[in-house]
């Protein structure tokens, strides 16, 4: 569809060169708000990209300015350090793009107030514009995306006493991220250019950017709305996060039970990490609620409702013989239910000591963790078949004749399109990054080969295929499937299995993040070469500061990070997952997942094969149903990969937010979207941005002021809403 069909008559053409930047900004502000006059009910996801996002552009706006360099480098450094700190926190917090966006806007507009005469014009070339802002956001958010390579390096340090040379470590981090860049570039024709390539979490980012920089009566109202919501959540969020933590997980059933029964805690508990799966637990903390992005993602999480039934029934039905183990944990356990003694069965060459293994036995998983792995693998298998059945035309268009390798352009149906970086640039980057990654894998301490070259190549190719699946908006977890494959390729070798996850799993997710940034640049008319440069710069800075901050934290908190529980300030639970997987699957995978073992763990890898067939019945019913009928709609709407994924989504970290997400999601994605489409288009995604931005700012302040990121934690006084002897939702006794 052409740009004219989407209202290109309303788009201001490029101003003459003689105009000043101020005049250009004013000319853009004259564009009326008629872009939203014909607002209709958004039937399809891609309709959001057309109706919510403006297509106006000024190609002469300056981009590579002093502001971009200073704020880009400064915020990238800050974001990388903060994101690394969050990696070692008990909560699953991240530095969002909205946080970077707000800080960049405040600082950028402040710098735009500086003088413009004389040499000052190089510091302040004019108003802070949307393209500068986008470049800074992409750079900072790329740096804030903590590399899995850093987490793997931390696991080697903590659990294997293997400390990589600093240069090798930084290049390893950078190379694995660059692999994702190469893949992202080569997949643009399929997953960036077309309108169906829709990234819902980025709509609020673009909506906010345009509201901040495009003037006019409508956008002035939207800016006022944004700052009101931003201030409200800023002043509210410190209450549930610090003074009144009961509000992070309100469970009436738990308060009545008061921690007396394990069943109640397992099913309804949600206030502490690994406490329970949070049935009917509600949160008022947006820091937790935003993990479910209820104002952004469509309602396709039926699987989570099934998860409450499946996980509870499996545990109390003693599936996988896990009834004598804790309800939730990602740690490994021995036959007697205690923590598994991995150091006794892994020798100095990082291989299995068979004599010790015969004495100690194989490790065990909690039932909920095993079920989660099974569901994730089931989801992965289903995704491949689902795409082949429902998206075959798009696949054929993108990959027919391998056209995506020969060109950087496609038949574009999206008005936000701009000319791209040549395809060969991404191909060269991919090959060079692969070579660097292989070189670093042969530079382990004491001559240790971390993973052989043939294995890196194999898992990188596999990751490329997975990246296509992820690009069709499937929220999948592929790490368990990758680790199981690696366990059979590298039996008895835990470290290669850990590295296989790095090249086979994280590369595909890094690809998805970079595809989203390419789409962000496309929406805001940022020239692709600047998007590419911003991503590269952010990754370089992120690699350096990820590693530097990780070393500081690990060296100062080694014992706490190795402890399965941790403290309220620091926790190694993310790093421990890599260690647990490398031991269970790397050292014992062939035995642990073989048919005939008493625990029945062979079902976990086999689930990927079963998953290949799960979408077929729904597709057959859809084909047989009357076109346009409710049955046909239901069969098409049931996204099997997502449903199966969410069945295993719950047994991790805290779970107090999901019922709040459900309520908010219904209000947003059904009631507002269908009953008030005009308001939905104007304000829904802007509200999401304001809530995320305000909560991120206050969380950062609290982290350094009272949560101990600066070195000293300051606990809030104990009272009914902040108990000392129970979890905050009264579901679990913490002290006897």
UniProtKB/TrEMBL annotation:
InterPro entries: Oligpept_transpt, OPT. The keyword Cytoplasm does not apply. The keyword rRNA-binding does not apply. One of its GO terms (cellular component) is membrane. Keywords: Membrane, Peptide transport, Protein transport, Transmembrane, Transmembrane helix, Transport. Signal peptide: none annotated. Residues 1-31 are annotated as: Disordered. One of its GO terms (molecular function) is oligopeptide transmembrane transporter activity. It is found in: Membrane. GO terms for biological process: protein transport. The chain crosses the membrane at residues 64-88, 94-114, 135-160, 166-184, 196-213, 225-255, 295-316, 374-392, 424-444, 456-476, 536-554, 599-621, 633-650, 697-720. It is a multi-pass membrane protein. Belongs to the oligopeptide OPT transporter family. PANTHER family: ISP4 LIKE PROTEIN. This is OPT oligopeptide transporter. It comes from Pholiota conissans.
């Amino acid at each position: 569809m052409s740009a004219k069909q989407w209202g290109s008559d309303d788009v201001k053409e490029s101003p003459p060169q003689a105009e000043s930047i101020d005049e250009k900004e004013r000319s853009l502000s004259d564009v009326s708000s008629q872009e939203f006059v014909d607002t209709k009910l958004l039937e399809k996801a891609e309709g959001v990209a057309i109706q919510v996002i403006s297509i106006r552009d000024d190609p002469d706006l300056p981009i590579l300015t002093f502001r971009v360099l200073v704020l880009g480098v400064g915020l990238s450094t800050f974001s990388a350090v903060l994101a690394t700190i969050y990696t070692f926190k008990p909560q699953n917090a991240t530095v969002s793009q909205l946080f970077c966006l707000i800080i960049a806007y405040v600082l950028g507009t402040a710098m735009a107030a500086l003088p413009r005469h004389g040499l000052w014009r190089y510091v302040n070339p004019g108003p802070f514009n949307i393209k500068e802002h986008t470049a800074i956001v992409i750079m900072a958010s790329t740096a804030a995306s903590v590399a899995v390579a850093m987490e793997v390096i931390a696991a080697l340090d903590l659990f294997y006493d293997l400390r990589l040379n600093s240069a090798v470590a930084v290049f390893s981090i950078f190379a694995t991220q660059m692999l994702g860049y190469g893949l992202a570039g080569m997949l643009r024709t399929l997953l960036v250019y077309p309108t169906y390539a829709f990234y819902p979490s980025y709509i609020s980012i673009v909506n906010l950017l345009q509201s901040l920089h495009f003037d006019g009566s409508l956008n002035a109202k939207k800016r006022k709305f944004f700052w009101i919501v931003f201030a409200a959540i800023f002043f509210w969020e410190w209450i549930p996060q610090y003074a009144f933590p009961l509000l992070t997980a309100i469970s009436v059933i738990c308060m009545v039970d008061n921690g007396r029964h394990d069943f109640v805690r397992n099913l309804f508990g949600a206030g502490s990490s690994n406490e329970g799966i949070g049935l009917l637990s509600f949160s008022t903390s947006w820091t937790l609620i935003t993990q479910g992005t209820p104002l952004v993602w469509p309602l396709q999480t039926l699987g989570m409702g099934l998860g409450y039934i499946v996980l509870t029934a499996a545990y109390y039905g003693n599936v996988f013989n896990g009834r004598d183990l804790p309800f939730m944990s990602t740690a490994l356990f021995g036959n007697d239910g205690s923590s598994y003694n991995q150091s006794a069965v892994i020798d100095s060459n990082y291989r299995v000591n068979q004599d010790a293994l015969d004495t100690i036995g194989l490790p065990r998983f909690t039932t909920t963790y095993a079920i989660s792995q099974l569901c994730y693998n089931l989801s992965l298998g289903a995704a491949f078949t689902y795409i082949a059945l429902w998206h075959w035309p798009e696949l054929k268009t993108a990959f027919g004749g391998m056209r995506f390798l020969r060109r950087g352009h496609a038949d574009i149906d999206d008005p936000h399109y701009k000319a791209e970086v040549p395809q060969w640039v991404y191909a060269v980057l991919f090959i060079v990054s692969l070579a660097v990654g292989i070189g670093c894998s042969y530079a382990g301490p004491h001559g240790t080969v971390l993973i052989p070259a043939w294995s890196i190549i194999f898992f990188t190719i596999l990751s490329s295929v997975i990246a296509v699946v992820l690009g069709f908006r499937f929220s999948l977890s592929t790490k368990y499937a990758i680790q199981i494959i690696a366990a059979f390729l590298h039996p008895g070798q835990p470290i290669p299995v850990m590295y296989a996850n790095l090249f086979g799993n994280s590369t595909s997710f890094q690809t998805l993040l970079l595809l989203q940034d390419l789409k962000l640049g496309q929406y805001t008319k940022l020239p692709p070469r600047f998007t590419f440069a911003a991503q590269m710069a952010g990754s370089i800075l992120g690699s350096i500061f990820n590693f530097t901050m990780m070393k500081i934290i690990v060296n100062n908190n080694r014992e706490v990070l190795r402890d399965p529980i941790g403290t309220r300030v620091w926790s190694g639970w993310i790093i421990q997952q890599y260690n647990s997987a490398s031991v269970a699957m790397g050292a014992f995978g062939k035995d642990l997942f073989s048919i005939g073992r008493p625990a029945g763990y062979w079902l976990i890898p086999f689930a990927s094969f079963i998953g290949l067939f799960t979408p077929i019945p729904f597709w057959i019913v859809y084909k047989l149903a009357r076109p346009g009928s409710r049955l046909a709609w239901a069969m098409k709407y049931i996204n099997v990969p997502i449903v199966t994924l969410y069945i295993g989504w719950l047994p991790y970290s805290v779970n107090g937010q999901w019922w709040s997400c459900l309520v908010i999601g219904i209000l947003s994605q059904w009631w507002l979207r269908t009953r008030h489409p005009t308001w939905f288009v104007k304000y829904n995604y802007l509200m999401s941005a304001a809530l995320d931005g305000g909560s991120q700012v206050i969380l950062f302040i609290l982290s350094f002021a009272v949560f101990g990121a600066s070195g000293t934690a300051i606990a809030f006084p104990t009272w009914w809403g902040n108990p000392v002897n129970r979890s905050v939702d009264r579901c679990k006794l913490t002290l006897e």
